[in-house]
Amino acid sequence: xxxxxxxxxxxxxxxxxxxxxxxxxxxxxxxxxxxxxxxxxxxxxxxxxxxxxxxxxxxxxxxxxxxxxxxxxxxxxxxxxxxxxxxxxxxxxxxxxxxxxxxxxxxxxxxxxxxxxxxxxxxxxxxxxxxxxxx
Length: 135
Prior knowledge:
Elements: E1 2-7, H1 13-26, H2 31-52, E2 59-68, E3 71-79, H3 106-114, E4 117-123, E5 126-134
Antiparallel strand pairs: 1-2, 2-3, 3-5, 4-5
Helix pairs in contact: 1-2, 2-3
């Protein structure tokens, strides 16, 4: 397992993406999966930056682990911010037009659609969002 701990600032999203990309390149990750993982990083890291820490800058640890059988990548985002389980967010009604749809929820919906398994826990005063993508 490899990990990076970085300030939860939106300008650090490229650093996190590059860190994960370097590891994906080592295993010859298919481009489609790589793009899906980019969407997940943008959404999860971005939400932590915007909402986890009210009046301060905290950190985010992004852990990457690979499995061989089945071949998969596991990403874990850990922060010390406000407790929040994004999996409790109701999925948006995507049959509605953007004008008719309520604001919010589309990003985590995309995460759910792009990953094969997702788990959330709040433990030791930390949010932990674990996700698996089969490659």
